[in-house]
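Um, can you check?
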Amino acid sequence: MSKKKFLIVDDDERFALLASSKLEKYAKCYMASNGEEALLFFQHHAQEGAPFSAVFMDIEMPDMSGHEAVQQMRALEKEMGTAPQAEFKLVMLTAHSDVKNVSVSFFKDQADAFVPKEKFKDNLIPELKKAKIIN
């Protein structure tokens, strides 16, 4: 079985590198610094027949929010006829764990996990295991 691929989207390069270093033993990690770059990566890999198994999306970014980027990714999957069981797993990341962002992440974006950045180091791996994104 081929190794999983994760897309980490965050405008804070240091945080993206931290996430990548924590996740690299579970999957090949790609990083995008904004929503538009993430969409290009996402579309290219999907069209090549090697889609990302999970996307780690920062909610607050300039120009395009994480919610907007996710909605476009979900629309691309639908357009391409991706089967529901093959859709990417979504982990929303944010410095703000307010009820609105949590609700939008799970209900609108169909998130599998939500990890506040201040709890990232301790909560990431347990959350990913609970959501069955990693073993």
